[in-house]
Amino acid sequence: MPLSSYIGGNARRGNLVRSRKPPQNDNSYRNSSNNFRKEDGAGATVDITTKGLYDKIQFLDEDGGPWKQGWRVSYKGDEWDSEKLKVFVVPHSHNDPGWKLTVDEYYDMQSRHILDTIVHTLSKDPRRKFIWEEMSYLERWWRDASVEKRESFTNLIKTGQLEIVGGGWVMNDEANSHYFAIIEQITEGNMWLNDTIGVVPKNSWAIDPFGYSPTMAYLLRRMGFENMLIQRTHYELKKELALKKNLEYTWRQSWDTEESTDIFTHMMPFYSYDIPHTCGPEPAICCEFDFARMHGFNYELCPWGKHPVAINQENIQERALKLLDQYRKKSTLYRTNTLLVPLGDDFRYISIDEAEAQFHNYQMLFDYINSNPSLNAEAKFGTLDDYFQTLREEADRVNYSLPGEIGSGQIGGFPSLSGDFFTYADRQQDYWSGYYISRPFFKAVDRVLEQTLRAAEIMMALVHGYCQRAQCEKLATGFAYKMTAARRNLALFQHHDGVTGTAKDHVVQDYGIRMHTSLQDLQIFMSKSIEVLLGIHHEKSDHSPSQFESAQVRSKYDVQPVLKAINAREGTSQSVVLFNPLEQTRDEVVMVIVKRPDVTVLDSNWTCVPSQVSPELQHDNSKIFTGRHRLHWKASVPAMGLQTYYVANGSNGKRFSVHSRQSLGAASLKDGWLEIMLDRRLLRDDGRGLGQGVMDNRPMNVIFHILFESNISSTSDPVSNPLPLSPSLLSHCVGAHLNYPLHAFVAKIPHELSVQPPPRSFSPLAAPLPCDLHIVNFKVPRPSKYSQQPIEDYRGLEVLKAKATSLNLLHEDIEMLGYMEQVADVGQEGHAFISPMEIQAYKLVLRPHQ
């Protein structure tokens, strides 16, 4: 049976499996000109580091004139004599899956009409193009669309008029979202798209996340993406890159010495992704070419006073030359003569009239420009793929490399860059850092859903592999749709207005209810899976309740979970089953709540386990003691396995690390100082479009693990190498234990103490994995049918075949993905080489052990 396993090296993790060994610094440098800065962050040699940029920029916020955050752009006029200007105008519509309205409200009121409009207007003229990003809306539209609309949509993709960019369930945030959730949301969208329409995206489009992480670039590269586009970076950084024509570059991981993680990146140069800020450096002029702002439409008129007018034979020359002037000025900020001009905004192209106004007027302008060879320009509608293909063709013909530039073997003529683009500021001193901690309650719920989904995915894969009874097939297939819903609810919250905490109150409530529903569904599935994996047979129907329930439950979407109390009455015992979702055996102290203190703990062999009972206290002035007790004992749970217990009656070379189970804001403002922001309240709107403050704070538990350890890597000189050292293996293990806790399930009905139950445990791995590997996920990508020949219910499994694949499970070309070639058959030899910091995905074919 096919399984998907990601393996990764630690600093991002993975079935995915990932190596945790910190990379060694490589101090080798390439020959380079003194004009370019190369830094050896953690091994990589590049032309530009974002740290170097931030150190260099003075952040003066000087008034640049028409381009307020830049300068007065000019050109000589002969720049396009040898290579004409090729302009690709890319129509798009940014559809937030929740912000001021819920995802369902947006779909009903806007997004479904936009997709209808795209199909209708593009079908009228093959010269028209469009791009679409969010699969959450496309999947819903596809369910509602007629067969004719579906066929038209598919044909538009096949002919190249319509391109799916990114193809994730949402356009995810890159600061708060864990890489596990990012992989899940992109994979969910990409696999739905491939299964339904038969296409796999290769260009990423991220115009609205509030800052960008190199982790996202890495994941995209490992998913087979070739190019990516970003927009919201610090305005002073954009200016600095534009001055050197470095807005397009290959983004490289700071630890990558092999250039295997390089991905070509286009950074948009101006303030916003709306039409006034995309045609050129002068928004007052560009706004005149947003024809949806003409009188008669529902959009805001141009705030600069001059408004767009329809193109006709009397004004076409003046209008075309004015627009071309902006195109030329914008092109001088880039190295090539291939220019990208996005044409869209939030929820645009909602009506046929609006779409026709844009397409018709622009086509007239293009026809005029293209019919005058003396202008040395060609303009047309295009997709993101049209732009990147033409740019790469030009880069192959013309050498745009600067003397001494390192660049990349992926594409010539552009600098290499490493680093991140946080913290984002769009103007003045307006830094977008508040969303790091806005609505931390739901940031915490997000991580709970992540770890529960991962555990449930692993359990489903194990049920598929180890149990061959019909009951097991019914369990897995019966929960498949709820598992898909859980993936999609987690994916939806990764939206850059979801996990960020930047949506309206009722939208946050909608996200919370979706996550809460999925948490309950997953816990029910895990409870039933425990019975299957432990071999507990009973004659009840498949729809009957499980013998187990989660030890931790939430009554509502917006309240803290509570621990169920075990009532071990005299002469009875209560089963506690622990599931370890990690790939190493776990020996750690666990805690359950009991109603009485005179209890003891027995293991599966009916041997007493040392335990400790303490009173449960609460923050209540009138009553501190709750009447319940906390029972602690040291449990040992096999790697990715189950273990049953019974509760019966009767800088001095040291390093300080803080691990958190959820994303929080943190700052180290000086040596020896670490400040962690837990929550924030915003009384007023901050002028970012939400139109409200953020006051819906809720009680929550914040869990930290504090690690004080010897710094074994302190041999490096902190003066010559001031960059932070990689976390130790112990630190990675501490973080893993915090983020992926044991899952406890308690028997609902006590059984007689006089009857000793059989030992119950389940250990699927032949041996625990080394501590420097982590399984990001272990799941069945699609339900499979069981063979019907009579075989034993439970048999050991062996790996028949292990095939490396992309992180979204859709590519198997190792060289294209940038992975190092495996020297042996992983399935036969049982060895996989995973470099430090890497994530590797494998498709496993398992069979009963011969």
UniProtKB/TrEMBL annotation:
Top-level division of the source organism's lineage: Eukaryota
Residue ranges of every copy of the Glycoside hydrolase family 38 central domain listed in the record: 430-515
Q: Which one GO biological process term can you cite for this protein?
A: mannose metabolic process
Q: Offer an example of a GO molecular function term for this protein.
A: mannosyl-oligosaccharide 1,3-1,6-alpha-mannosidase activity
One matching Pfam family: Alpha-mann_mid
Its placement in the membrane is given as: Single-pass type II membrane protein
Per the entry, which co-factors are needed? Answer: Zn(2+)
Q: Return the cofactor note field.
A: Binds 1 zinc ion per subunit.
Q: In which pathway does it act?
A: Protein modification; protein glycosylation
List UniProt keywords, sorted A-Z.
Answer: Disulfide bond, Glycosidase, Golgi apparatus, Hydrolase, Membrane, Metal-binding, Signal-anchor, Transmembrane, Transmembrane helix, Zinc
User: What subcellular compartments does it reside in?
Assistant: Golgi apparatus membrane
Q: Mind telling me which SMART domains this protein's record contains?
A: Alpha-mann_mid (SM00872)
Q: Where is this region: Disordered?
A: 1-42
Query: Does the UniProt entry include the keyword Transmembrane?
Result: yes
What are its E.C. numbers? Answer: 3.2.1.-
Q: Which SUPFAM superfamilies match?
A: Families 57/38 glycoside transferase middle domain, Galactose mutarotase-like, Glycoside hydrolase/deacetylase
Q: Could you tell me where the Polar residues compositional bias lies?
A: 22-35
Question: What do the Gene Ontology cellular component annotations say?
Answer: Golgi membrane
Reactions that this protein is recorded to catalyse: N(4)-{beta-D-GlcNAc-(1->2)-alpha-D-Man-(1->3)-[alpha-D-Man-(1->3)-[alpha-D-Man-(1->6)]-alpha-D-Man-(1->6)]-beta-D-Man-(1->4)-beta-D-GlcNAc-(1->4)-beta-D-GlcNAc}-L-asparaginyl-[protein] + 2 H2O = 2 alpha-D-mannopyranose + an N(4)-{beta-D-GlcNAc-(1->2)-alpha-D-Man-(1->3)-[alpha-D-Man-(1->6)]-beta-D-Man-(1->4)-beta-D-GlcNAc-(1->4)-beta-D-GlcNAc}-L-asparaginyl-[protein]
What is the name listed in the Swiss-Prot or TrEMBL entry for this protein? Answer: Alpha-mannosidase
User: In which organism is this protein found?
Assistant: Salix purpurea (Purple osier willow)
Classification from the root reads: Eukaryota, Viridiplantae, Streptophyta, Embryophyta, Tracheophyta
